[in-house]
Amino acid sequence: MVRIGIIISSTRPGRFADHPAKWIEEVASGRGDMDVEILDLRDYPMPFFDEASSPAYEPSKNEVALRWQRRLAECDGFVVVTAEYNHGPTGAVKNAFDYAFNEWAKKPVGFVAYGGVGGARAVEQLRLVSIELQMVPIRNAVHIQWTVYSAVTKEGKSLGSFEFLQSGAKEMLDQLLWWAQLLKRARGG
């Protein structure tokens, strides 16, 4: 069975990210074909990238970054739950991407996004970063629009009550699983 890390990219107090992270964790766990674990960037308070060199060339010195890298190394793929801030991903998630290199390589990544236009611009930028890190970004993503955000935060609706999100999650997770299994075998796992 493949192990998938669900990364929560927002560290803001009162963040919306907990809703989609818990929802996608339940959806993924309910499938029975992957182990999932939430990786909350609040638990990895790394300073903005301040190493002498990229971890591609030189081991990190920061203890939190080393703990982050060890956790990533245990995963066979990732789902990044990302907010969109000012047409891009959060600074915290970009920093988390920069603090690792080999641990990301040859692993798939999918996205659950929210914000302006369903977080599409944040996902677009993270896909470019993922490719540079030798990851395989999944084509399908789950995009949570503002109307859904309002229904969840103001009306107490569940993300699982929206059929288009459920079918989008299934498609994204199906692709993620296929790539995770293939790449795990190719890495010798």
Automatic annotation (TrEMBL):
Ranges in a coiled coil: none
All copies of domain NADPH-dependent FMN reductase-like, residue ranges: 3-143
One GO cellular component, as annotated: cytosol
InterPro entries listed in its UniProt record: Flavoprotein-like_sf (IPR029039), FMN_Rdtase-like_dom (IPR005025), NAD(P)H-dep_reductase (IPR050712)
GO MF annotation: an example: FMN binding
Transmembrane segment boundaries: none
This protein's name: Putative flavoprotein
